[in-house]
Amino acid sequence: MSVRDGLRGVAWSVLVPALLLAATGVAFVWSTTRHAAQPLWGRQLAFLGLGALGGLVLLRVGVRWLADASSVLYGALLALLAAMPWLADSSATGTERWIALPLGFKLQPSEFMKLGLVLVLARHLQHRGVTNTWRSYAAPFALTLLPWWFVMRQPDLGSSLVLLPILLAMVTVSGARGRHVALLAGGSCALLAAAYFVPGALHDYQKERIDNFVRPIPELMEQARELHNRREHAAAAEIEADIQRLRRGTGRQQLYSVMAIGSGGFLGAGLGDGLQNRPYGVAVRHADFVFAILGEEWGLLGTTVVVGLYAWLLAAILGVAWRTREPFGRMLCVGVAGLVGGMALMNLGIATGMLPVTGLPLPLVSYGGSSVVAISLALACVLDVARRPSHVFFED
Amino acid sequence: MRQRRVGVVLVVLLAGLALVEARLVRLQIVQGDAWQAESVRSTSVLQTLSAERGWILDRHGEPLAATEDVRDLSFRFRDWRQKGGAVTGHLLSLLWLLDGERRAVADVHAHVPELLDGIAPVTVAELAGVQPRQRRADVLSYLEWLLGERFDAQLRAALAGPATDPWLTLAALPGFAEGRAAALRRALEQADALDDLGRLAGLSRRELLEALDAVVRRADARVEAALARDAADGNAPPDPFRRRRELHAELDADPAELRAGASHDVQTLLAVRAGELRGFSVRAEKRRTYPAEWADVGALLVGRLGAPRDRGPGGTPGDLAQADVHRERLAALTALDDPSDAEQAEYDRLSILVREVDYRATDERGLYGVEAALEPALRGKRGWISERPGAASAESQAPQRGLDVTLTLDVELQRAAEAVLERALQRDADGQPRGTPGAIVLLDPRSGEVLALASAPCPTRADLALRWGELLADPWGPLCQRALGPGDSGNLPPPGSTFKPLEALVALRDALITPQDTCACAGSLQVGGVTLHCLGVHPQADLRQALKDSCNVWFYRFATRAGGASVLEAARLFGYGRPTGLLAGNEALAGLGLRVEAGLPEWSVPLQLEPPPKGIDAMRCAIGQQRLDDVTPLQVAVALGAIGHGTLRPPQLVRAIEGYGEVPARAPVDLGCSAEHLGVVREALGAAVDSGTAAALRGLLEEAAGRHAREPGVPRVAPADLARLVAGKTGTAQVAGRARAGGWLAQRQPQAATQSIDAPLPDHSWFAGWLPREEPCLAFAILLEHSGRHGGDACVPLLADLLYEPALQRLLAREVSP
Questions:
Q1: How many Å apart are CA B459 and CA B483, to the nearest integer?
Q2: Regarding beta strands B538-541 and B519-521, do their DSSP bridges make them parallel or antiparallel, or are they unpaired?
Q3: Is the alpha carbon torsion for B720, B722, B726, B730 positive or negative?
Q4: Mean of all residue pLDDT scores within chain B
Q5: pLDDT tens per residue, range B453-483
Q6: Is B584 in contact with B374 (CB distance < 8 Å)?
Q7: How many cross-chain Cβ pairs, A to B, lie less than 8 Å apart?
Q8: CB A390: neighbour CB atoms within 10 A?
């Protein structure tokens, strides 16, 4: 296929926002790591390049092949996840999330597992779909629960939770009834809430994060301000004492993230000039909390553009899902939308203080090789589906 | 249908993004300014610069309290044990992390090779099992700093690798041997540098290591105390290890003083061998010093410094609590979006207070004496530097030096007076006094300026600094300022017969008596069923003789004639029963706008003027007892000085304050007496010294002249001439009651502590007056507590001793024309 043929049929509406987000990511990895011992923006570019390469390979190979291989891929990734306790390099943080690669790189299988789940669910749901019977839910549920368990155990609550929006999105589109979806969503939340009270289910620091969410420091600070302005200084002082206590714990991360975003105002401080863009400012500011620095340095203008880019990207992916007649492709695109949208919404929610803190990258923007490559592959799948809207893979 | 479902998913996702957008608008636009301010606040670093304290000088400019630049050798535990620090430090912390036991610095220092060998058999599996993970990370950091990067890389690979033999020991890892050798080499170099440091700082190796150990243990204790405080507040941290680590990181960075006064050589050594002596530094500081020449003179008067008070005077909040209150109020005002003008003004005022004035936990403040009373002036204002990362320049303000205070005190006269009182204590071979405590006040009656305020026994400068607790418990009450307040009994003495000239003068002025009024004294007077006594028998005594010989019966009749009201009026006119306003309540100082705090115990007991005493009560008042039984030696000196000079000049202790200039004179009190009346009383008091109750002075002066060495170049006044210069009144004050349990009087006379409260205690003795008789330049009051003797017997010898002190001789040479 010639280059021109290849370029014809490219879903620009998917590619353009993705490239813009990726460029934003590189800019902010530069901004947050330029003074560090090792500036990482070059690596991020390399990861993006790797992802693009993988995407091109995938486009060459075609989604059909992926569909055939979905069970194998899923199984392999699951096995990899199961073996993490033995394979992982836990020396730095005590968690078993990464496999150490030569040259100091790290591979995070959970990122690829998300795509693997999308593939296997798409294969499963493409024709059968979900009906009113509970039995029809069993397989999708089981397929989600297994990787969820392994990822949760690492521990990596954030990545494990992203599997839920994927499941919900795909199950919705494949025909689940509204109340079943609602039940599924509500039930998961209830389970999570219950996990808080089961001893040993959540680590102490995870429970602390939920505590901080229920009494978020930014909200408390707002309350104190209001009380001061109503001249009720004694009551305000009590709340401020609480804040001092909470600040000592993990509430600090979210407080600084919200503070950085809020201080951006309308125009922001300028790329690289954020006050909290420093070692004792926002935590993990090149990866999980990159949106905080984005908010501080580009202001409301920048954050709205980024939110808009995600909206555009998701609309484009779902647009592909809408137009295609290929059932696997449709489920695949919906799954990718669930993946990207779920990750984006969760990360943005955490950074702005609307959700309890869990560690989770912002797709395409956060620094991180595995995430970038996995998302690139996912988007490549979408592009491939977009190329052949009327092509149906499987007659069933 | 499935297509529509796709729309549902899109709507849900877009709704989520819309919620995020709404939140962003709220954070960045609605709350934007508040977050901006908070962000700036969280990155600003405020560094304070301490101010130099003002000096305290005597009237001739002699420094009583000064500040000097001091260079101390200081030690930062955190820098010493962390990256680039000492091998001993790394090992100390590594072992503490591994087994929780804090070893002595000296032990670790002496056994570095053995301890390194002790870590060698630790297995990788054991290390991997160290919990929590932060502790494991710290252990790995210390191992890296100890044994090098190559070893560290090998260790991390072994920890990460899947195929690691669980029995693999650290010693077996490549890089251990060379890391150990390098560590030993470094340890030797550091030990050598440490020995040099000890030598230059005047510390043996053992002393230096023990000093380091003390710092380490203090740091541990502070961390434990902070954790205990957390637990008591109900804030037990979810992760105790992390909290402990945080506390250590914060508290271990404080510099600890190892050795005061580090020489220039020490500084040079630290510069040259910086790599091996990480954690040690020389800190320059301004410190309050009390120059050795005058350090022990008037130590109680000058006062001392200490940590900020837990409680203010009269139940007001302590210094740090006050600072907290200001800080909280400032935080509340900062939060206001729309402050009123009053609130804005309060904010501006509080900002300055919190930044420059309020006390911090590490500050020193005057706790006693002039240091405390004039603390606001002496203290100065802190400076500060406010830095923000990324800001072009730092805002700063230089510290404002405290104001120098010049007292009216003459330190040589003070020393002379203290020496005389100390001799009067007649300490035996064990240092136990056989005499009694007392006070001497010397002032200039022309201006009211106080020249000496001596009290005995009094503490030395070292005692004040180091033995405060012992001083408090001392039965002799060395912390009592007997010139201004009560002795250890807690009661002020009555003026006794020294009151007689005062009431006589006022009665003459009011034409209630004449100098010729006579009465016959048979040694006692019967009134009702009560016998009132006199000191002697005085047939046909007039006013002059009554004053000269201190006839009580004359004054009993005087009380009946002049009336109790006149007696009390005399007390009121001469300032008895009211605070003297030496420092606190001094309207001249207040008029300058100077805030004076409590520092010197200026006592007064209010005089009850209504209803006027009658009968026996009036008679007892007339001899300076009963209602009139609370005066201070300062008040007596002022009163007698007023008679000598003609007008009453209220006493003044502060002569000048830097920046304010000289303290204006306080308003004199016009006695309203004619020169003739004053002349009568003055003449009588001169006669008291010539031939009356103080007639022994001349003989005592001759003895004193023989005892004291003659000062070269200073003309000496002959004893006979000197005796003719002095005018004064002796006094014997009767006291009743119970001696303080555990006090010196109770120890000397045990029955005095358990007797009835009406039972008598040994009398107090007084001698007060002025010299020279015409145009006095010096007024004096001498008190000996519970001496049990007459004023003429007990106190007049002290005056004789005092007048031949070199300082007094010089004063006389200056002021008195021969």
A1: 15
A2: antiparallel
A3: negative
A4: 88
A5: 999 899 999 988 888 889 999 999 899 999 9
A6: no
A7: 177
A8: 8
What's the whole-number mean pLDDT along residues A321-333?
Answer: 87
Chain A contact set for B40 (CB, 8 A): 263, 275
Residue A117 CA to chain centroid, in angstroms?
14
Judged against a pLDDT cut of 90, whether residue A231 lies above it is answered with no
CA nearest A126: which of A289, A365, A300, A327?
A: A327
Beta bridge partners of A204: none
Rounded mean pLDDT of chain A? 83
Task: Specify the residue for token string 């090779």.
Answer: B113
Task: Convert the pLDDT of each residue in A138-147 to its tens digit.
Answer: 788 888 888 8
The answer to whether B24 faces chain A, any CB pair under 8 Å, is yes
The two structure tokens encoding residue B692: 């009356």
Q: What stretch of H or E contains B396? A: strand B395-397
Which two three-digit tokens encode residue B102? 């804090």
User: Which residue, among B817, B801, B694, has the nearest Cα to B426 in the 3D structure?
Assistant: B801
Distances (CA, A) of B74 to B219, B259, B269: 14, 7, 14
CA angle B278/B279/B283 to nearest 5° reads: 120
What does the block give as tokens for B448? 């009211």
B100 touching A (Cβ < 8 Å): no
Average pLDDT over residues B428-453: 93
Going by their DSSP bridges, the two strands B669-670 and B538-541 should be labelled as unpaired
Residue with tokens 């600090």: A252
Closest CA to A352 of B26, B79, B123: B26
The tokens describing B34, both together, are 């508040």
The alpha-carbon radius of gyration of chain A (Å, integer) is 22
Residue B716 contacts A, CB cutoff 8 Å:
no
Kindly state the tokens that stand for B269: 């050594």
Strand pairing of A106-107 and B56-57? unpaired
Q: Coil, strand or helix: which one is B501?
A: helix
Can you tell me the mean pLDDT for B362-371? 88
Q: Considering only the beta carbons, identify the residue of B24, B40, B133 that sits closest to A275.
A: B40
Q: What is the dihedral of CA B101, B106, B111, B112, to 10 degrees?
A: 80
Which one, of B599, B581, B603, lies nearest residue B483 by Cα? Answer: B603
Residue B311 — φ and ψ, nearest 5°? -135, 140
Q: Are A31 and A272 in contact (CB under 8 A)?
A: yes
Omega cis (within 30) before B132: yes
Q: Tens of pLDDT along B747-800?
A: 888 888 888 888 889 999 999 999 999 889 999 999 999 998 888 889 999 999
Q: Is B32 on the interface with A (CB under 8 A)?
A: yes
Cβ separation of A240 and B331 shorter than 8 Å?
A: yes
State the CB neighbour count (10 A cutoff) for residue A84. Answer: 22
pLDDT of amino acid B77: 92
- Pick the closest to residue A254 from A200, A217, A299 (CA basis): A217
pLDDT confidence of residue A377: 93
Cα–Cα–Cα angle for B718, B723, B726, nearest 5°? 130
Q: Which helix (H) or strand (E) holds B6?
A: helix B2-25
Question: What is the distance between the alpha carbons of residues A357 and B284, in angstroms, rounded to a whole number?
Answer: 47
- Give the per-residue pLDDT at A396: 47
Q: Which of B779, B810, B804 has its CA nearest to residue B449?
A: B779
Check the CA dihedral B360-B361-B362-B365 and report its sign. Answer: positive
B9, amino acid identity: V
Burial class (CB in 10 A: 0-12, 13-18, 19+), B20: buried
| A369: amino acid identity, one letter | G
How large is the C-alpha radius of gyration of chain B? 37
> What is the identity of the amino acid at A362?
L
**Mean of the pLDDT values across residues B231-240?**
74
**DSSP letters spanning B517-559:** --EEE-SEEEETTEEEE-SS-EEEE-HHHHHHTT-HHHHHHHH
| B239/A contact by beta carbon, under 8 A | yes
